[in-house]
Amino acid sequence: MGIQEIATVTGLSKxxxxxxxxxxxxxAETTIDEVRRVADELGYVPSSAAAGLxxxxxxxxxxxxxxxxxWFYVKALGGVDAELRRAGYDLxxxxxxxxxxxxxxxxxxxxxxxxxxxxxxxxxxLDATERAELELTxxxxxxxxxxxxGLRNIGVDDxxxxxxxxxxxxxxxxxxxxxxxxxxxxxxNVAVPHLRRDGFVDAMRAAGHAVPDRWLLDGRFxxxxxxxxxxxxxxxxxxxxxxxxxxxxxxxxxxxxxxxxLGVLLAAAQAGLSVPAxxxxxxxxxxxxxxxxxxxxxxxxxxxxGRAAARAVLAEVEGGAAGxxxxxxxxxxxxxxxxxxxx
Length: 343
Prior knowledge:
Elements: H1 3-10, H2 14-21, H3 29-42, H4 48-55, E1 60-65, H5 71-86, E2 90-95, H6 103-110, E3 118-122, H7 128-137, E4 141-144, E5 153-154, H8 158-171, E6 177-181, H9 191-206, E7 216-218, H10 223-234, E8 252-255, H11 258-270, E9 280-285, H12 288-293, E10 296-299, H13 302-317, E11 331-333
Parallel strand pairs: 1-2, 1-3, 3-4, 4-5, 6-7, 6-8, 8-9, 9-10
Antiparallel strand pairs: 10-11
Helix pairs in contact: 1-2, 1-3, 2-3, 5-13, 8-9, 10-11
């Protein structure tokens, strides 16, 4: 089964069918959808080898992830994969395996074998050697997540998402607000935690509220880290019981990720605190587990970011220019974990 059969069924030329199967921008969306529907019905499978011989391309995009078990990475990968499949490209995954992984294998050997046409990097910052190695490939590249020097990136404004969270709490009347952030040792873009913390501190100062150092806690961007930070904030003893109210306890907590916010919510429950009557909690990211427990959050859409990143590099592979990338949108989702301060 080949392109000629698809052209016969659709009444289109072979060249139009070929362009539609590749998802090229000069073909109407309706035509692309029709051609792919017929191709699926006929059982057409594109030949990567044939395409490579004809165009010098591999019809594959490499995606590099620090680890593969994080919500953000899974969602972004899904978006990249959906867009690549739509364009008839394969996804080649490079998992760095966290801090103890073999980055050399990915950056020096695997990627330089010219098995891919472009690269999408998830939440990575490259050192000078890695940058130099990748530049030798001349592949189009883009980063999803925090900024990486010298590379285009698509992601939310990490200062702004913290400011949205602070503005929401201050609008409710909160003045004593703590922050749970810290570094993600598994390999998140190192700039993201700093930017979100700076955004929080700047927004609190702009609102005229001081933040004691003891209310800036490290939650390691994990559920367990958020739980530990919440225990430190709320003074949970070994026997549990309600934590004492007063100036030593914040009335609200901004968490730099929803995973940490879920841990803080558990710590509040263990301390005998009612949320939001005794303490408000807000997260960042829009994790689906947050919706289950009614967590207020500043949501982003990593799947949409993955799709946008894939479209950007594919446009370059197909001969287009590298365009500017706007910041990804983020928006406040008010649920049940935020309310006015007690009293």
